[in-house]
Amino acid sequence: MNVFLSFVSAALLAVFVQNSVLERALGVNVLLYASRKKEHLPGFFFAITYVTTISSAIVCGLDRLLSGWEYYAAVMPILYITVVSMVYILTLVVIWWFFPRLFRSLKKYVHLSVFNCSVIGALFLGGQLGGDLPSYLGYGFGTGVGFLVAAYLLYIARDRLYSPLVPAAFRGFPIMTVYVGILSLALYAFTGYSTAAR
């Protein structure tokens, strides 16, 4: 039961409290592309969730194995990028070899969704939280779900943001940026904020 609760709490943390796109602004460029069409959303969700979850499991092992090494913080980014690259390459080879039809339909999502800041950010943030393997997996899974939530919220607002009621100077990217900022502030409420003097 503790394993399940650890997974769920880390996933909820990644979706709502530390959403990598809305709270940390990681992968916003991919978010803007993914939210253009509803058909893009499942592909990006699956690719990001898969890569962050599998990579988080490997990173958990690396963090436990190398955390005592004094130079680990210096080589950590290189190791994390290597882990993501290896998961990406092995997955593409397996899909291309055994499921060529699926490969043709997924290849337009995979490159953009794997190599973006939200994937690498998920590994760093999951590593900062520490904990056990279910926490790492939950945070990796929650990052993909959080990306889907942010992309869907942007998709459903797209028609209104491009409406003629929006002044021409704000239409398009400027109003999208303002909208993402408002969503970020709304999610920031989940973190709690105290103005009391300490």
Notable traits:
single chain; globular; 198 residues; mainly alpha
Question: What's the SSE blueprint?
Answer:
Elements: H1 2-17, H2 28-34, H3 40-66, H4 72-98, H5 100-114, H6 117-129, H7 133-161, H8 173-188
Helix pairs in contact: 1-7, 3-4, 3-5, 3-6, 3-7, 4-5, 4-6, 6-7, 7-8
- Kindly report how far apart the N and C termini lie: 37 Å
Instruction: Give me the number of helical elements.
Output: 8
**Structural class given helices, strands, pairing?**
mainly alpha
Order of helices and strands: HHHHHHHH
| Average pLDDT score | 85
Largest sheet: none
**Tally of distinct domains:** 1
Oligomer: single chain
How much is the radius of gyration in Å? 18 Å
Total beta-strand segments:
0
- The low-confidence parts are none
Identify the overall geometry: globular
Estimate the strand proportion: under 5%
Helical fraction equals: over 70%
Question: How would you describe the overall organization of this protein?
Answer:
The protein has helices at 2-17, 28-34, 40-66, 72-98, 100-114, 117-129, 133-161, 173-188. It is mainly α. The chain has one domain. The protein starts with a helix and ends in a 10-residue tail after the last helix.
